[in-house]
Write a structure and sequence with these properties.
This protein is an all-alpha fold. It has one domain. About 45% of the residues lie in helices and about 0% in strands. The protein has five helices and no strands. The longest helix is centred in the C-terminal third of the chain and has 23 residues. About 15% of the residues have low confidence.
Amino acid sequence: MTTMSMRQRVCAGLVLLVFVTATPIDAQGTFPPRSFQNLQVLPTDVSASDVISTMKGFTRALGVRCQFCHVGEEGLPLEKFDFAADTVPQKTIARNMMRMMREITKLVDAAKPPEPGTTAPRVTCYSCHRGQQKPLTDRG
């Protein structure tokens, strides 16, 4: 598995930003924006650093860049991306996958409660994707 560049990590953070904003970043005038609208999966009070961290996790887990889920072109400044647009189908899929991971985590926790003090997620995108766009189902 290759390591991600800083730019890839930033793009990962921006992937999530698309999930949580209703207006384009450049229309908001700042990046990241001071507040988010159109939150469908993340909590309404999520911090920008948490959004970016989540996006970085997506890019690492799937081995993709920002434009995999967001409207924008490689090489353009991130302010030129339309992170709010819901036109890229992968964005909707990612939202559904986040919901699915939450449900799976609940089932895993019910079957085997986590150790006290453990905060790391037990089920993540990487659990199935292993750095690939499509989940790896053959573990043999």
